[in-house]
Amino acid sequence: MDPVFSSRYPFTSQAKEIVSSRKGGLTLDEVDAAKARVLAAASGGGLPAVRTRIASVLEREIFSYAGARVILACLQSRYLQGRYAVAESKRAGKHLHEDDDAVLARVAAELGMKVSVGTPYSMRFTEYLRFAPKDVKYKLSNKPLSGGTVTLDRNELVRVIEEAVRLRIDAGSPVDAALVPEPLRKAAEDVRKTLPKTGGFAARMDLKAEDYPPCVKELVSRLKDSENLPHTARWYLAAFLLQAGAKVDDVIALFRAAPDFDERTTRYQVEYIARKGYRVPSCSNAESYGICVAVCGTKSPIGFVKRRAFARGNAQAGGAAAKGGTGG
Fold it and tell me: What sign for the dihedral angle of Cα 134, 136, 137, 139?
Protein backbone atom coordinates (compact mmCIF):
# COMPACT_ATOMS: atom_id res chain seq x y z
CA MET A 1 0.00 0.00 0.00
CA ASP A 2 1.23 3.47 -0.91
CA PRO A 3 -0.35 6.03 1.46
CA VAL A 4 1.04 8.98 -0.53
CA PHE A 5 -0.68 7.79 -3.73
CA SER A 6 -3.91 7.01 -1.86
CA SER A 7 -3.99 10.40 -0.14
CA ARG A 8 -3.48 12.18 -3.45
CA TYR A 9 -6.03 10.03 -5.28
CA PRO A 10 -8.50 8.90 -2.57
CA PHE A 11 -11.06 7.76 -5.17
CA THR A 12 -8.83 4.84 -6.24
CA SER A 13 -9.23 1.17 -5.31
CA GLN A 14 -6.11 1.22 -3.11
CA ALA A 15 -7.50 4.05 -1.00
CA LYS A 16 -10.79 2.16 -0.65
CA GLU A 17 -8.89 -0.91 0.54
CA ILE A 18 -7.19 1.17 3.23
CA VAL A 19 -10.55 2.47 4.43
CA SER A 20 -12.14 -0.99 4.34
CA SER A 21 -9.30 -2.58 6.27
CA ARG A 22 -9.79 -0.42 9.35
CA LYS A 23 -11.82 -1.97 12.14
CA GLY A 24 -14.00 0.83 13.40
CA GLY A 25 -15.21 4.08 11.95
CA LEU A 26 -13.66 7.47 11.49
CA THR A 27 -12.08 9.32 14.38
CA LEU A 28 -13.63 12.61 15.46
CA ASP A 29 -10.63 14.41 13.97
CA GLU A 30 -11.28 12.69 10.62
CA VAL A 31 -14.99 13.57 10.78
CA ASP A 32 -14.08 17.22 11.36
CA ALA A 33 -11.66 17.02 8.42
CA ALA A 34 -14.39 15.48 6.25
CA LYS A 35 -16.81 18.29 7.12
CA ALA A 36 -14.11 20.88 6.43
CA ARG A 37 -13.45 19.22 3.09
CA VAL A 38 -17.08 19.56 2.04
CA LEU A 39 -17.34 23.14 3.29
CA ALA A 40 -14.17 24.13 1.46
CA ALA A 41 -15.62 22.77 -1.77
CA ALA A 42 -18.93 24.53 -1.13
CA SER A 43 -17.21 27.86 -0.59
CA GLY A 44 -15.31 27.59 -3.86
CA GLY A 45 -12.00 27.98 -2.08
CA GLY A 46 -10.64 24.72 -3.48
CA LEU A 47 -8.96 21.78 -1.78
CA PRO A 48 -5.24 21.98 -0.98
CA ALA A 49 -2.81 19.57 -2.58
CA VAL A 50 -1.06 16.99 -0.36
CA ARG A 51 2.67 17.59 -0.17
CA THR A 52 3.69 15.72 2.95
CA ARG A 53 4.79 12.24 3.93
CA ILE A 54 3.66 12.42 7.55
CA ALA A 55 1.73 9.19 8.04
CA SER A 56 -0.99 10.64 10.28
CA VAL A 57 -1.72 13.46 7.82
CA LEU A 58 -1.88 11.08 4.86
CA GLU A 59 -4.27 8.81 6.75
CA ARG A 60 -6.50 11.74 7.64
CA GLU A 61 -6.64 12.74 3.97
CA ILE A 62 -7.74 9.27 2.93
CA PHE A 63 -10.40 8.88 5.61
CA SER A 64 -11.68 12.46 5.40
CA TYR A 65 -12.43 11.87 1.71
CA ALA A 66 -14.43 8.75 2.63
CA GLY A 67 -16.26 10.71 5.30
CA ALA A 68 -16.97 13.57 2.91
CA ARG A 69 -18.62 11.16 0.45
CA VAL A 70 -20.91 9.90 3.23
CA ILE A 71 -21.79 13.45 4.25
CA LEU A 72 -22.70 14.28 0.65
CA ALA A 73 -24.80 11.14 0.35
CA CYS A 74 -26.73 12.16 3.46
CA LEU A 75 -27.35 15.68 2.17
CA GLN A 76 -28.67 14.66 -1.27
CA SER A 77 -27.80 18.12 -2.61
CA ARG A 78 -27.24 18.13 -6.35
CA TYR A 79 -25.65 21.56 -6.12
CA LEU A 80 -23.19 20.60 -3.39
CA GLN A 81 -22.39 17.25 -5.02
CA GLY A 82 -21.41 19.09 -8.19
CA ARG A 83 -19.25 21.64 -6.41
CA TYR A 84 -17.50 18.92 -4.45
CA ALA A 85 -16.81 16.86 -7.58
CA VAL A 86 -15.26 19.88 -9.28
CA ALA A 87 -13.08 20.67 -6.25
CA GLU A 88 -11.79 17.10 -5.93
CA SER A 89 -11.11 16.81 -9.65
CA LYS A 90 -9.10 20.04 -9.67
CA ARG A 91 -7.15 18.81 -6.66
CA ALA A 92 -6.38 15.56 -8.49
CA GLY A 93 -5.36 17.60 -11.53
CA LYS A 94 -2.76 19.47 -9.46
CA HIS A 95 -1.21 16.19 -8.39
CA LEU A 96 -1.30 14.73 -11.90
CA HIS A 97 0.69 17.68 -13.20
CA GLU A 98 3.31 17.03 -10.50
CA ASP A 99 3.48 13.23 -10.67
CA ASP A 100 5.27 11.18 -13.32
CA ASP A 101 3.77 9.43 -16.33
CA ALA A 102 3.54 6.08 -14.54
CA VAL A 103 1.15 7.63 -12.00
CA LEU A 104 -0.75 9.32 -14.82
CA ALA A 105 -1.35 5.97 -16.51
CA ARG A 106 -2.23 4.30 -13.22
CA VAL A 107 -4.87 6.86 -12.31
CA ALA A 108 -6.29 6.74 -15.83
CA ALA A 109 -6.59 2.95 -15.60
CA GLU A 110 -8.45 3.31 -12.28
CA LEU A 111 -11.00 5.45 -14.11
CA GLY A 112 -11.48 3.06 -17.02
CA MET A 113 -8.99 4.52 -19.49
CA LYS A 114 -6.04 2.81 -21.10
CA VAL A 115 -3.62 5.52 -22.13
CA SER A 116 -0.22 5.59 -23.78
CA VAL A 117 2.17 8.01 -22.10
CA GLY A 118 5.28 9.66 -23.43
CA THR A 119 5.62 11.48 -26.73
CA PRO A 120 2.95 11.48 -27.93
CA TYR A 121 0.29 10.80 -25.32
CA SER A 122 -2.75 9.03 -26.68
CA MET A 123 -5.91 7.07 -25.88
CA ARG A 124 -8.68 5.19 -27.67
CA PHE A 125 -11.24 7.51 -29.24
CA THR A 126 -14.15 5.65 -27.59
CA GLU A 127 -12.72 6.39 -24.16
CA TYR A 128 -11.88 9.93 -25.20
CA LEU A 129 -15.49 10.56 -26.24
CA ARG A 130 -16.67 9.26 -22.88
CA PHE A 131 -14.43 11.45 -20.72
CA ALA A 132 -13.36 14.49 -22.75
CA PRO A 133 -14.59 17.84 -21.41
CA LYS A 134 -17.62 19.24 -23.23
CA ASP A 135 -15.68 22.09 -24.74
CA VAL A 136 -15.05 23.03 -28.36
CA LYS A 137 -11.29 22.69 -27.78
CA TYR A 138 -11.80 19.00 -26.94
CA LYS A 139 -14.17 18.13 -29.79
CA LEU A 140 -12.95 14.97 -31.49
CA SER A 141 -12.91 16.77 -34.84
CA ASN A 142 -10.28 19.14 -33.43
CA LYS A 143 -7.89 16.37 -32.35
CA PRO A 144 -5.47 14.22 -34.37
CA LEU A 145 -7.12 10.84 -34.91
CA SER A 146 -5.45 7.81 -36.48
CA GLY A 147 -6.34 4.14 -36.27
CA GLY A 148 -8.97 4.81 -33.62
CA THR A 149 -6.45 6.59 -31.36
CA VAL A 150 -6.57 10.25 -30.30
CA THR A 151 -3.26 12.06 -29.86
CA LEU A 152 -2.98 14.60 -27.02
CA ASP A 153 -0.33 16.57 -25.23
CA ARG A 154 0.28 15.90 -21.54
CA ASN A 155 -1.77 18.84 -20.29
CA GLU A 156 -4.73 17.76 -22.42
CA LEU A 157 -4.52 14.22 -21.12
CA VAL A 158 -4.42 15.48 -17.53
CA ARG A 159 -7.54 17.55 -18.26
CA VAL A 160 -9.36 14.49 -19.63
CA ILE A 161 -8.41 12.45 -16.56
CA GLU A 162 -9.50 15.33 -14.35
CA GLU A 163 -12.90 15.30 -16.04
CA ALA A 164 -13.16 11.54 -15.50
CA VAL A 165 -12.50 12.11 -11.78
CA ARG A 166 -15.25 14.73 -11.70
CA LEU A 167 -17.74 12.40 -13.38
CA ARG A 168 -16.97 9.55 -10.99
CA ILE A 169 -17.40 11.69 -7.87
CA ASP A 170 -20.39 13.56 -9.27
CA ALA A 171 -22.22 10.26 -9.67
CA GLY A 172 -22.34 10.02 -5.87
CA SER A 173 -22.57 6.84 -3.85
CA PRO A 174 -25.58 5.11 -2.29
CA VAL A 175 -25.63 5.18 1.50
CA ASP A 176 -28.11 3.66 3.92
CA ALA A 177 -28.86 6.58 6.26
CA ALA A 178 -29.67 4.16 9.07
CA LEU A 179 -26.09 2.87 8.98
CA VAL A 180 -24.40 6.28 9.02
CA PRO A 181 -22.63 6.87 12.36
CA GLU A 182 -23.97 9.70 14.50
CA PRO A 183 -20.86 11.92 14.16
CA LEU A 184 -21.17 11.90 10.38
CA ARG A 185 -24.93 12.51 10.51
CA LYS A 186 -24.30 15.51 12.77
CA ALA A 187 -21.58 16.74 10.42
CA ALA A 188 -24.04 16.50 7.52
CA GLU A 189 -26.60 18.57 9.41
CA ASP A 190 -23.94 21.17 10.22
CA VAL A 191 -23.12 21.44 6.53
CA ARG A 192 -26.81 21.61 5.59
CA LYS A 193 -27.22 24.73 7.72
CA THR A 194 -24.57 26.52 5.68
CA LEU A 195 -26.16 25.79 2.28
CA PRO A 196 -27.90 28.69 0.53
CA LYS A 197 -31.59 28.32 -0.18
CA THR A 198 -32.42 26.92 -3.61
CA GLY A 199 -34.13 30.16 -4.56
CA GLY A 200 -30.81 31.92 -4.28
CA PHE A 201 -29.65 30.23 -7.45
CA ALA A 202 -32.52 31.40 -9.61
CA ALA A 203 -32.23 34.59 -11.58
CA ARG A 204 -34.91 37.25 -11.32
CA MET A 205 -35.37 37.22 -15.08
CA ASP A 206 -38.73 36.36 -16.55
CA LEU A 207 -37.54 33.34 -18.54
CA LYS A 208 -40.64 32.52 -20.55
CA ALA A 209 -40.14 29.10 -22.06
CA GLU A 210 -42.07 29.96 -25.21
CA ASP A 211 -39.85 32.94 -25.99
CA TYR A 212 -36.42 31.37 -25.70
CA PRO A 213 -34.78 29.02 -28.22
CA PRO A 214 -34.33 25.35 -27.30
CA CYS A 215 -30.55 25.74 -26.99
CA VAL A 216 -30.92 28.42 -24.31
CA LYS A 217 -33.66 26.56 -22.46
CA GLU A 218 -31.43 23.49 -22.44
CA LEU A 219 -28.44 25.41 -21.05
CA VAL A 220 -30.56 27.11 -18.37
CA SER A 221 -32.04 23.76 -17.35
CA ARG A 222 -28.61 22.13 -17.13
CA LEU A 223 -27.23 25.05 -15.16
CA LYS A 224 -30.11 24.99 -12.67
CA ASP A 225 -29.40 21.28 -12.19
CA SER A 226 -25.86 22.35 -11.15
CA GLU A 227 -24.26 20.81 -14.21
CA ASN A 228 -20.74 22.00 -14.92
CA LEU A 229 -21.21 23.75 -18.27
CA PRO A 230 -18.12 24.23 -20.46
CA HIS A 231 -16.75 27.73 -20.94
CA THR A 232 -18.13 28.07 -24.48
CA ALA A 233 -21.66 27.24 -23.31
CA ARG A 234 -21.44 29.73 -20.45
CA TRP A 235 -20.21 32.49 -22.73
CA TYR A 236 -22.99 31.72 -25.22
CA LEU A 237 -25.66 31.80 -22.52
CA ALA A 238 -24.40 35.03 -20.97
CA ALA A 239 -24.11 36.76 -24.35
CA PHE A 240 -27.65 35.70 -25.29
CA LEU A 241 -29.23 36.80 -22.00
CA LEU A 242 -27.48 40.16 -22.03
CA GLN A 243 -28.44 40.77 -25.66
CA ALA A 244 -32.03 39.78 -24.82
CA GLY A 245 -32.13 42.53 -22.19
CA ALA A 246 -31.16 40.80 -18.93
CA LYS A 247 -29.29 42.76 -16.27
CA VAL A 248 -25.73 41.80 -15.37
CA ASP A 249 -26.71 40.94 -11.79
CA ASP A 250 -29.53 38.70 -13.01
CA VAL A 251 -27.17 36.74 -15.26
CA ILE A 252 -24.71 36.34 -12.38
CA ALA A 253 -27.57 35.12 -10.15
CA LEU A 254 -28.36 32.39 -12.68
CA PHE A 255 -24.73 31.24 -12.73
CA ARG A 256 -24.73 30.78 -8.96
CA ALA A 257 -26.00 27.25 -9.55
CA ALA A 258 -22.76 26.30 -11.33
CA PRO A 259 -20.73 23.82 -9.25
CA ASP A 260 -17.56 25.88 -9.70
CA PHE A 261 -19.22 29.29 -9.25
CA ASP A 262 -16.90 32.08 -8.18
CA GLU A 263 -18.53 35.49 -7.63
CA ARG A 264 -15.56 37.64 -8.60
CA THR A 265 -14.61 35.65 -11.71
CA THR A 266 -18.21 35.38 -12.93
CA ARG A 267 -18.87 39.09 -12.40
CA TYR A 268 -15.72 40.04 -14.27
CA GLN A 269 -16.59 37.81 -17.23
CA VAL A 270 -20.27 38.82 -17.46
CA GLU A 271 -19.45 42.53 -17.11
CA TYR A 272 -16.76 42.15 -19.76
CA ILE A 273 -19.25 40.59 -22.21
CA ALA A 274 -21.74 43.38 -21.46
CA ARG A 275 -19.14 46.15 -21.74
CA LYS A 276 -17.80 44.87 -25.05
CA GLY A 277 -21.32 44.41 -26.39
CA TYR A 278 -20.63 40.90 -27.66
CA ARG A 279 -23.47 39.40 -29.67
CA VAL A 280 -24.58 35.82 -29.30
CA PRO A 281 -23.18 33.59 -32.11
CA SER A 282 -25.32 32.47 -35.02
CA CYS A 283 -27.08 29.10 -35.05
CA SER A 284 -24.44 27.67 -37.41
CA ASN A 285 -21.72 28.59 -34.91
CA ALA A 286 -23.81 27.21 -32.05
CA GLU A 287 -24.00 23.93 -33.94
CA SER A 288 -20.22 23.82 -34.34
CA TYR A 289 -19.87 24.44 -30.58
CA GLY A 290 -22.16 21.49 -29.84
CA ILE A 291 -24.77 23.80 -28.29
CA CYS A 292 -27.55 23.47 -30.89
CA VAL A 293 -30.21 20.94 -29.81
CA ALA A 294 -33.05 21.45 -32.32
CA VAL A 295 -33.94 22.77 -35.77
CA CYS A 296 -35.57 26.14 -35.07
CA GLY A 297 -35.87 27.52 -38.59
CA THR A 298 -33.94 30.69 -37.70
CA LYS A 299 -30.38 31.85 -38.24
CA SER A 300 -29.74 33.15 -34.74
CA PRO A 301 -31.07 32.69 -31.18
CA ILE A 302 -32.11 36.35 -31.06
CA GLY A 303 -33.96 35.85 -34.33
CA PHE A 304 -35.93 33.07 -32.64
CA VAL A 305 -36.95 35.44 -29.83
CA LYS A 306 -37.98 38.17 -32.26
CA ARG A 307 -40.02 35.72 -34.32
CA ARG A 308 -41.87 34.49 -31.22
CA ALA A 309 -42.50 38.05 -30.04
CA PHE A 310 -43.82 39.01 -33.47
CA ALA A 311 -46.12 35.99 -33.59
CA ARG A 312 -47.40 36.71 -30.10
CA GLY A 313 -48.06 40.34 -31.01
CA ASN A 314 -50.05 39.34 -34.07
CA ALA A 315 -52.06 36.85 -32.03
CA GLN A 316 -52.87 39.49 -29.43
CA ALA A 317 -53.84 41.99 -32.15
CA GLY A 318 -56.09 39.41 -33.78
CA GLY A 319 -57.73 38.66 -30.45
CA ALA A 320 -58.36 42.34 -29.82
CA ALA A 321 -59.88 42.77 -33.29
CA ALA A 322 -62.16 39.80 -32.75
CA LYS A 323 -63.42 41.25 -29.50
CA GLY A 324 -64.00 44.61 -31.14
CA GLY A 325 -65.99 43.01 -33.95
CA THR A 326 -68.37 41.17 -31.66
CA GLY A 327 -68.87 44.19 -29.49
CA GLY A 328 -69.89 46.55 -32.41
Answer: positive
Cα–Cα nearest to 172, from 79, 273, 288: 79
Domain-ending residue, one of 149, 166, 193: 193
Q: Which of 236, 300, 243, 244 is nearest to 274 (CA)?
A: 243
Which of 190, 252, 226 is closest to 84 using CA atoms? 226
Query: Contact, 195 vs 42, CB < 8 A?
Result: yes
pLDDT in tens, 12-25: 999 999 999 998 88
Q: For residues 12-45, b (16+ Cβ closer than 10 Å) or e, as one string? A: bebbeebbeeeeebbeeebbbbbbebbbbbbebe
Residues 242 and 125 occupy one common structural domain = no
Q: Identify the domain containing residue 122 by its residue range.
A: 3-193
Let me know if residue 328 belongs to a domain: no
Cα–Cα dist 33/27, whole Å: 10
pLDDT tens digits for 176-220? 877 899 999 999 999 988 876 544 444 444 546 567 888 888 888
